Amino acid sequence: MANGPLTPPPTTVAELQDEARSADILPEAVTPVTQTPTQDNYQRIFPAISELAIHSQFEDLVHTAENADLNIDGDRHTTRLLITTPLVLAYLILDKFPPARYVLTRLPDNLTSMPLVKSLMGLVASTGERKYTAVYSRAEALFNIVTQPEFFNASLSQLTVGMITAFVESFRQRTFALVSKAYTSLPLLLAQTYLGLPPDQLLVAAEKACWSYDVSTQVLTPGSKGLPIHSTLSPAFSSLSTFNFVADSVARLEL
């Protein structure tokens, strides 16, 4: 048996809201929705390109990045540089200057005005013209741009630093091979110009390649075994810690 009259169900808007509040129920219409940030197609393909770079699969990287660069919509977006930057550096590592330059000519004006792209253009131009001191200084300039705290993408920064290192090393290796064939002897300062190495590292590499060094004349001479210096380089020579020396050397050489 009921103890009193039944309470009529809420009918007005005010009564319905009071009941919802008393039951601590948030109406479905105002339930907050958490939205997952969306990625564009350049961002989606970037991890695959990064993985190829990490494993030095630069031919595969070129194929993957070229396909993305030519077929993905939204080519004026800044995120396109997630593809363009490693693509250009991969071409340079593979010593393919013309396609590296062509990649940059495809970019729209709003991207070519960015410091990152301008720096890539300078590096490509110096590499194609074999301006040795400029190659090392412009590699350093690119390194400085991508390591700035305000750089727009941390993952691209990390990838670019690694690929700059790989490029400098590959460029230096090829230069060693050319120098060993072109010279019967060369001054130490000239060798530094070509290779962008401090004297102590350069002399260690020369000694391992059976080159001799005359302290009095500061001249390097290939040994009778004919071993090219580039065959003795260690990965340590590609360290970006040499960039400070390179910058100082370039400044002195270009005075």
Automatic annotation (TrEMBL):
It holds the Pfam family CSN8_PSD8_EIF3K. Residues 82-221 form the CSN8/PSMD8/EIF3K domain. It comes from the Eukaryota. This is CSN8/PSMD8/EIF3K domain-containing protein.
